[in-house]
């Protein structure tokens, strides 16, 4: 299975989600490789920190910033899952990878420019639909870094705005909140599952719900 984590917007959580998806799949017992297609190499940087600090188990990370499509297809024949971390605004690679992927997860934040960018990404994917083997790029939007305050409605508002602007868009019900544990884990070369449960419990629950929902979508489409 090829999972691409991509978006045209920078800083929305692509690398963070790609790393944690790969790590989660590996923890669940499947073989996985994380392909860092971003020239800024955040996933590879995380992997270097992980190795340096001796965090186990090792997670295989391959850096392929130029024309990764063929490499990804080759790896998909050798691993249960290939997770691709994409750079922001890289429409050339987006075209190459979305047409071969089994699932595109697009993290978005709730700000206006983030949502406008998500609409553009969705429109771009509709143009790529004919090139996908199933005739439809299997894209889901994951709302990330939503405010934690119980009475904050921005995640719900964002979902409604996207559904209004994009007919048929799939915005996952599970919402990832803005939680410091994500940054702490990244700095330590760890996934959030490898952090103390007392600190990571809420983030882990939200993430697992998001990933399960995304994989359910993938298995049905
Ligand atoms: N749910 C979250 N809560 C708190 N911080 C988060 C969350 N998700 C991501 N972050 C933090 O946001 C920052 C940007 O995340 P990340 O590097 O994954 O984004 P990106 O989309 O890959 O950025 P780029 O476009 O530069 O590649 C990081 O410091 C990361 O730890
Ligand atoms: Mg990144």
What would a concise description of this structure say?
This protein has 221 residues and is an alpha/beta fold. It has 8 helices and 6 strands.
Care to describe what's here?
The protein contains eight helices and six strands. By secondary structure, the protein is an alpha/beta fold. It has one domain (2-220): P-loop containing nucleotide triphosphate hydrolases (Rossmann fold, 3-Layer(aba) Sandwich).
The helix content is 40-55%
Low-confidence stretches: none
Rg from Cα: 16 Å
Structural class of the helix and strand makeup? alpha/beta
N-to-C SSE string, H for helix and E for strand = EHEHEHEHEHEHHH
CATH superfamily: P-loop containing nucleotide triphosphate hydrolases
Q: How many H/I helices?
A: 8
Q: Which terms would index this structure?
A:
binds adenosine-5'-triphosphate, 47% helix, binds magnesium ion, alpha/beta, six-stranded parallel beta sheet, 6 strands, 221 residues, Rossmann fold, 8 helices
What is the strand and helix layout of this fold?
Elements: E1 2-5, H1 14-27, E2 32-36, H2 42-53, E3 60-63, H3 69-76, E4 81-85, H4 91-98, E5 103-108, H5 112-128, E6 139-143, H6 154-165, H7 180-187, H8 197-220
Parallel strand pairs: 1-4, 1-5, 2-3, 2-4, 5-6
The protein binds adenosine-5'-triphosphate (ATP) and magnesium ion (MG).
């Amino acid at each position: 299975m090829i999972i691409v984590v991509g978006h045209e917007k920078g800083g929305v959580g692509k690398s963070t989600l790609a790393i944690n998806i790969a790590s989660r799949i590996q923890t669940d017992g499947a073989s996985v490789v994380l392909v860092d297609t971003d020239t800024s190499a955040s996933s590879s940087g995380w992997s270097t920190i992980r190795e340096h600090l001796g965090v186990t188990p090792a997670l295989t990370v391959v850096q392929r910033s130029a024309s990764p499509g063929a490499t990804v297809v080759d790896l998909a024949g050798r691993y249960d899952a290939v997770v691709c971390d994409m750079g922001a605004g890289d429409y050339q690679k987006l075209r190459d990878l979305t047409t071969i992927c089994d699932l595109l997860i697009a993290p978005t934040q709730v700000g206006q420019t983030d949502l406008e960018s998500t609409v553009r990404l969705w429109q771009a994917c509709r143009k790529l639909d004919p090139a996908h083997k199933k005739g439809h790029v299997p894209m889901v939007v994951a709302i990330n870094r939503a405010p934690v305050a119980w009475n904050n409605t921005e995640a719900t508002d964002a979902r409604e705005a996207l559904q209004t602007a994009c007919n048929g868009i799939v915005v996952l019900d599970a919402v990832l909140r803005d939680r410091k544990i994500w940054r702490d884990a990244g700095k330590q070369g760890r996934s959030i599952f490898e952090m103390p449960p007392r600190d990571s419990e809420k983030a882990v629950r939200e993430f697992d719900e998001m990933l399960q929902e995304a994989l359910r979508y993938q298995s049905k489409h």
